[in-house]
Amino acid sequence: MGKIRVKTFGDEEQELKEKEKLEARKQAKKAEKQSAETQTQEDFVEPVTEAVEEKAEASKTKSSYSQKAKKKAPHSKNYQNLLTLIDRAKTYTLAEALELLEKLQRGKLDETVELHLNTLTAGLSGNITLPHGTGKKTKVAIATDALIAEIEKGIINFDILVAAPEMMAKLARVAKVLGPKGLMPNPKNGTIAQNPQDIAKKYEGGQVNFKTEAKTPVMHLTVGKMSFGKEKLTQNIEALITAVKKSNIVNITLKSTMSPGIKIKI
């Protein structure tokens, strides 16, 4: 027969007090733990917040500096003096403009002569071999397996790339490199042909492509060097205007590398 445990009223009261003390200790430990976790989170969040704020402030400062840098720097005093030689309200004949352009030269540098056209619409394109070339030696390359391997390594030593039709599938491997640089062969600009050697000779002989910007009806073209003289520059410019067609042109500006622009009659 097992033992019988007899509890008295006093024992039950003592046990209840012990339970209350134990529960109180548990609650105290829980509160202490929660307090420690909260403090840890605060310690972590605060420096992160400060870092974010510092980064935002630095970004704001950088953005402010960038915006200031983007503001067009004022032209030099020399450039401002050259501007006084041009009648901004006048549209010059080509002969007058070329004569004035000679007076606008700022040093011994053989400056490049540029023609800037505003056209009626965007999307105009074509090519022409200038009578006297551009004065710049154009590096023309013909697409080969070896050349494609160089392009894949980031080596590009040419201004124009021409290709036979059968090479286009292979050139697709480097289209992401050539495309943004405007170097991908294209039937529209005549850089794809059965005899790419013949096309290369034309470009080396002074053939140039002309086209408007992608979203703007504007063309920027090189028409020679100041050392060409007025006669050769006149022939190049007239040939280019004929190729683009006068009916497509709204206005023309002539300038050299470092000179102000001169508006000329179409």
Tell me about this structure.
With 266 residues, this protein is of the alpha+beta class. It has three domains: 7-73; 77-135 and 208-266, Ribulose 1,5 Bisphosphate Carboxylase/Oxygenase; 139-204, Rossmann fold (3-Layer(aba) Sandwich). 46% of the residues lie in helices and 16% in strands. The protein has helices at 9-70, 77-83, 94-103, 145-152, 168-171, 175-181, 196-204, 229-244; strands spanning 112-119, 125-129, 140-142, 160-162, 207-211, 218-225, 249-256, 262-264. α4 (145-152) links the parallel β3 (140-142) and β4 (160-162). The protein starts with 8 loop residues before the first helix and ends with a strand. 18% of the residues are buried.
Keywords:
266 residues, alpha+beta, Ribulose 1,5 Bisphosphate Carboxylase/Oxygenase, Rossmann fold, 3 domains, four-stranded antiparallel beta sheet, two-stranded antiparallel sheet, elongated
Briefly say what this structure is:
By secondary structure, the chain is an alpha+beta fold.
Strand order of the largest sheet: 6-1-7-8
Basic shape = elongated
User: How many beta-strand runs?
Assistant: 8
Helix and strand run: HHHEEEHEHHHEEHEE
CATH class of the largest domain: Alpha Beta
CATH superfamily of the largest domain: Ribosomal protein L1/L10, rRNA-binding domain
Name the beta content range. 15-25%
Q: Low-confidence spans: pLDDT under 50, at least 5 residues?
A: 40-53
- Radius of gyration, taken over Cα atoms and rounded to an integer in Å: 38 Å
